[in-house]
Amino acid sequence: MPSESPLDGIARLRGTKAEKPFAPYFQTRYTCRRCFQPFDYPQPPSLRRRFACQRHCAAVNTKEHIMTVSPVALRRKTECKPHPTARYWKKCDVEALFGLPFLELVYQAAEVHRQNFNPREIQLSTLLSIKTGGCPEDCAYCPQSAHHNTNLGKEQMMDVDEIVEKAKIAKSRGASRFCMGAAWRGPKPKDVETVSAIIKAVKGLGMETCGTFGMLEEGMAEDLKEAGLDYYNHNLDTDPDRYNDIIHTRRHEDRMDTLGKVRNAGLKVCCGGIVGMNETRAERAGLIASLANLDPQPESVPINRLVKVEGTPLADAEDLDWTEFVRTVSVARITMPQSYVRLSAGRSNMPEAMQAMCFMAGANSIFYGDKLLTTGNPDEDGDRILMEKLNLYPLQFEPEGEVAEVEKASGIKADY
Ligand code: SAM
Ligand code: DTB
Ligand code: SF4
């Protein structure tokens, strides 16, 4: 009998065939940070080094424009391809867009917007902080970090009934999506059970649901999907090259890992960032490039203008000129033509004309309701008046599943 390899021996004992048991020990399976496809690399590279897979991404594997990988084998579900990245966006190309004459840039963005969306429709999401304050992360922008001296204390998780009540009000005022946020580094298994019950209840109202609960461990995204979560919000927040200056308690790669898990579970991705954190234009371009190179691109891209909160390290950040904010929205629209671009935090001190310019440049979603998570937002009445003035109207959400069936069978719209 020919000598048996150790792998053949294990296979024989298990009663399985040892054709291709697993890759030899020196081959490590990585996940490309651009396309989320697994690929093998012949030697375990240092985690500090950056790699792209050798498929299409190799073409862009130049010194400045490579993507990071980490040794987590992820598979993207084949049905989960809403809008694959049409091209790879180099940071310098995005910066070149930023440098276009202002009105030319807005005009190009408006054209892209009209090719992909009804420019009169605005998606309305209402936010609720279901667990506020005391977060162990040290994000320099965030009033909820336990590392900063803001006047926010650590609160308990809100009660389910109270959350559902808030969601009903949001729906009655015209919001199509209810976004729930928690000041966690990531949820514990028990927290996933609690939020799953909440998601189920909100989904039952016939609204889209979105959650932002921090970094997810294996299996959690699937549990949230199962509970009825539609979107997971997890922002890249700033240029990957600057990430460590803004947050010291996690890495950009950790964010990417969670985004991979979210995508693999079949959840829709809401991923954006913040501008106005003393970054350079090149760094804003880096943020937009990192979002646009997610493949598939995120369905929803929140562009936040920093809300400066006393006690946070960025409380005295320099004001970003309004034109630079409109440029950021325009560049997001051009590079992510099929994504909803949300004019997010920071609207409270944006004049109406500036918001109108953002809508012109392709923003087609807002946070609707007088509070974001812990800071203020324009009230609904003001937003409705602004939308009327601009002849915009809320995007209607068509309910799916049980609610839709009941409505269809009875011919009566559910009374929420
Ligand atoms: N803890 C979770 C996380 O970080 O993913 C979820 C909540 S966290 C508050 C959600 C997002 O809010 C952050 O990623 C950041 O983009 C945004 N954010 C937080 N503080 C902000 C501020 N002061 N101004 C603008 N956006 C802010
Ligand atoms: C996002 O990109 N912006 C929202 C939402 N996702 C969760 C949060 C904005 C928070 C602004 C500061 C606060 O209200 O605490
Ligand atoms: Fe925590 Fe999220 Fe705030 Fe960072 S942004 S401190 S993770 S709540």
From TrEMBL:
Question: What's its catalytic activity?
Answer: (4R,5S)-dethiobiotin + (sulfur carrier)-SH + 2 reduced [2Fe-2S]-[ferredoxin] + 2 S-adenosyl-L-methionine = (sulfur carrier)-H + biotin + 2 5'-deoxyadenosine + 2 L-methionine + 2 oxidized [2Fe-2S]-[ferredoxin]
| Cofactor mode of binding and number, as noted | Binds 1 [4Fe-4S] cluster. The cluster is coordinated with 3 cysteines and an exchangeable S-adenosyl-L-methionine.
Family annotation (SUPFAM superfamilies)? Radical SAM enzymes
Pathway entry: Cofactor biosynthesis; biotin biosynthesis; biotin from 7,8-diaminononanoate: step 2/2
Which residues are noted in the entry as [2Fe-2S] cluster-binding?
Answer: 179, 210, 270, 342
**Cofactor(s) for this protein?**
[4Fe-4S] cluster; [2Fe-2S] cluster
Q: Which residues bind [4Fe-4S] cluster?
A: 135, 139, 142
Q: Which GO terms describe its biological process?
A: biotin biosynthetic process
Q: What is its EC number?
A: 2.8.1.6
Task: Kindly give the SMART domains that the UniProt entry links to this protein.
Answer: BATS (SM00876), Elp3 (SM00729)
- Pfam families per UniProt: BATS, Radical_SAM
Keyword Iron assigned to the entry: answer is yes
**What residues does the Radical SAM core domain cover?**
120-344
Sorted keywords for this record are:
2Fe-2S, 4Fe-4S, Biotin biosynthesis, Iron, Iron-sulfur, Metal-binding, S-adenosyl-L-methionine, Transferase
| Gene Ontology MF annotations | 2 iron, 2 sulfur cluster binding; 4 iron, 4 sulfur cluster binding; biotin synthase activity; iron ion binding
Q: Which CDD domains match?
A: Radical_SAM
The record's annotation in PANTHER family points to:
BIOTIN SYNTHASE (PTHR22976), BIOTIN SYNTHASE, MITOCHONDRIAL (PTHR22976:SF2)
Subunit structure as annotated in this protein's UniProt entry: Homodimer.
According to its UniProt entry, what is the function of this protein?
Catalyzes the conversion of dethiobiotin (DTB) to biotin by the insertion of a sulfur atom into dethiobiotin via a radical-based mechanism.
Q: Which family does it belong to?
A: Belongs to the radical SAM superfamily. Biotin synthase family.
NCBIfam families in the cross-refs? bioB (TIGR00433)
Can you say what this protein is called?
Biotin synthase
What is the organism field in this record? Neisseria gonorrhoeae
